[in-house]
Predict the structure.
Amino acid sequence: MQKSVACDLAILSAVTMVAIIAPLPLGAADDAKMSAIERVNATEKGTLKNPLPITPEIVAEGKELYQTKTCGACHGANGGGIHCPSLINENWIYGSDDDTLFRLVAIGSEGVAKAGYSRGDKEKHAGPMPPFGEAISNEQDLWKIIAYIRSLKAGAAAK
Ligand code: HEC
């Protein structure tokens, strides 16, 4: 009888330990799988920061994603802008920090306006910037795109 109680306790504590330990690795896996929109919703305004190292490989992957996600249809294949803002001039309509750029692409220009980001009276454009946060199912892809866009601005500044 006593043995069985001890055994039950052992099982109980094993189960409890699993319950305590499990959320850590599971949570980490969920983090890695967050879409851009989930990341926006899970993160306090003003605190998003590119976690990736800015290497030529990351920038090259960002360039590829920029094309497959159709950004170039509005901003030009090389970011020079068509009807939509140039991504290679010195103006940033909502701001140039990581947090603002990530949110703008994820929730669109109407989304950031609702969230309290001001565009002021800068460059007027035909339409709003559509939200891409659900289409970008891995948040890291959006950070790669942002790294690529920054490389364009840096290139323009160097000219
Ligand atoms: C349907 C056209 C369209 C598409 C597609 C589009 N954008 Fe935009 N984008 C806009 C417009 C319009 C604005 C300006 C919004 C405003 O003035 O309020 C903008 C603004 C921006 C800005 C701010 C530019 C600045 O100078 O401050 C960035 C960065 C940006 N878009 C990135 C992207 C990325 C990355 C993609 C692809 C994932 C993308 N856009 C796809 C229309 C588009």
In short: Residues 9-29 have pLDDT under 50 and may be disordered. The CA atoms of residues 6 and 47 lie 49 Å apart.
